[in-house]
Amino acid sequence: MLPTPTKAAEDSATAVAVSDLRMRYGDRDVLCGVDLTVRRGEVFALLGPNGAGKSTTIEILEGFRRRSGGEVSVLGADPDTAGPAWRGELGIILQSWRDHPRWRVRELLEHFATYYEHPRDVDELLERLGLQEQAAQECQKLSGGQRRRVDVALGIVGNPRLLFLDEPTTGFDPVARREFHELVEQLRDEGMTMVLTTHDLHEAERLADRIAVLIAGRVAACGTAAELAVSARAQAEVVWTDDGQTRRQITPDPSQLVWELQQRLGGPIPGLEVHRPTLEDIYIRMIREGETQ
Amino acid sequence: MTIRRALACGLGRGRLEITHLLRTPREVISQLSTPIAFVVLAMVNDDAIPGSALPMANVFIAGGVAAVVVQTCLIALPQVLATEREEGTLLRQRTAPEGMTAYLIGKTCLLLTQVLIGIALVLAGGAVFAGSGLPAGLGDWLTLLWVLPLGLLAMAPIGAALGAVLPNAREALAWSMMPVLGVMAISGIFFSITSLPEAVQTISQLFPPKWIAQGVRSALLPDSALAAETGHSWQHLQALGVTAAWAVAGFTLAPRVLRRMARRESGSRLAERRTAAPA
Ligand SMILES: Nc1ncnc2c1ncn2[C@@H]1O[C@H](COP(=O)(O)OP(=O)(O)O)[C@@H](O)[C@H]1O
Ligand SMILES: [Mg+2]
């Protein structure tokens, strides 16, 4: 079955194109016009607090939920109508699940390899994820971290072109998190496109080529970590004391404001501080603004 | 091409699920319990079928065959579906191309194996230990060959739909157990129902179990046993009509319900249940 091209599909360099995506549950709008573009070969992070709509977005892209409105193209097809050949190009890692409890690790991976046109070698996959010793164990007997590695193995056993990961490291200890980050980096080096969600800014900075900040169903900012940092630093906070009171003002041009203050006060400015906010400051501020809306 | 792959994946799945069944002692025991119970019931009862010299054992053995079909389709199947939906097995299937098709094919293989093993155990156990009959000729075997598949086709889609709509495995069991046992009780599976009130006998004729049991009796017993049958005949035509009607209804309803279930499953629903249910 040929994928059906949609208006949102741009060109072969685009893996995911989303425009004006809307989702409504009952009378509540959870996504209010999301625009995104994911390029082939990049790692794209959807960053946002709980309830921002990250899972809703990623599950619409995966073809697991029908959107209420907007244009979506994933690998050149509309997820709502795309067929099995399209699905074979995707890998999906959802938040922890406990499926197939009685299946042994190797037989589960070997079984899922049969669904795909060009699957990965199961032995190589077991070795890569450090699961050789668990190959003959039932999934229900694995530890949390081992189980998670099985999820990852199942996500990539079909050798997907595009891999979706929904909060992949939630509940990981620091070692597991580090190992997982290294795995994502290896897969990126192999050319796999990845879309991941996280509520952790540092994880997004560490893994993603580009980040979209999703707040209350809207993309509040989008770009590389460096671009976001630059735009964050573009707004400086100037603090000073006037009549014994602390004053603060946000400005794109702190030097100009300081100059004006000196003029007005006719000399040195008491208690002067100029802050360049970090990306984290800005992220927290965006979340707060989203909450007060 | 994809159809062939889906079939291959489904058959592979069926083979693995059968292996899992056989290597889990708990499953093997519950698999054996219905056949053993009916064979024992047939062994301890020395009565004759009313109005004939034939042993009652035949009634229990035929009832056991029907019970295997009913229990596998209406109790085991909904439970397994609800469980696999809850733990995310179905969602995992959804992530793979043609995964749901393969899942259904695999489940069909498993169900057929369970039913065939159960029926073989009841018939053989009855013949060896309880003196019940086996089909006497080609005609009687052919009767089994249409009654049992049709009975399965009548019951399995209903069980699948039940598993798809009930909220979880525990409720699947609670909701399916009582009505199923009730229908089985009035269907001549545990005892001959000619002594029951007319109205109850009429109700039982609306459901497949009575016809499965009666159809099996018609294959095991000579016509001299007919005195104890409700219609004083084997009523093959009615059996065919009622089971076929249920099969048609089931195959109309079940695919819709299953499709809806598959569509509704998502990662967040899974996570929601995870947080809602104590781990
Ligand atoms: N199936 C659903 N029905 C109704 N509301 C939902 C459903 N799924 C999610 N929501 C709501 O939509 C909002 C966004 O949810 P979600 O996409 O899971 O956010 P995130 O993944 O960013 O935490 C939340 O407020 C959640 O309660
Ligand atoms: Mg989420």
Automatic annotation (TrEMBL), chain A:
Keywords noted in UniProt: Antibiotic resistance, ATP-binding, Nucleotide-binding, Transport
Membrane topology: Peripheral membrane protein
Record's subcellular location: Cell membrane
Pfam family, any one: ABC_tran
Listed SMART domains: AAA
Keyword Membrane listed: no
Keyword field contains Repeat: no
GO biological process terms held by the UniProt record: response to antibiotic
Residue span, ABC transporter domain: 16-241
GO CC terms, sorted: plasma membrane
InterPro entries membership: AAA+_ATPase, ABC_transporter-like_ATP-bd, ABC_transporter-like_CS, ABC_transporter_ATP-binding, P-loop_NTPase
GO terms assigned for molecular function: ATP binding; ATP hydrolysis activity
Coiled coil: none
Coarse class of the protein's main subcellular location: membrane
Family listed: Belongs to the ABC transporter superfamily.
PANTHER family, alphabetized: ABC TRANSPORTER ATP-BINDING PROTEIN, ABC TRANSPORTER ATP-BINDING PROTEIN NATA
Protein name from the UniProt record: ABC-2 type transport system ATP-binding protein
Origin species: Microbispora rosea
From TrEMBL, chain B:
Keyword Transcription attributed: no
Main location: membrane
GO BP term, example: response to antibiotic
Membrane topology, record value: Multi-pass membrane protein
Keyword list, A-Z: Antibiotic resistance, Membrane, Transmembrane, Transmembrane helix
Transmembrane regions listed in the UniProt entry: 28-44, 56-81, 102-129, 141-166, 173-193, 239-258
One GO CC term on file: ATP-binding cassette (ABC) transporter complex
Pfam (any one): ABC2_membrane_3
Subcellular location: Membrane
Domain ABC transmembrane type-2 residue range list: 26-261
UniProt-recorded Gene Ontology molecular function terms: ABC-type transporter activity
Superkingdom of origin: Bacteria
Protein name according to UniProt: ABC-2 type transport system permease protein
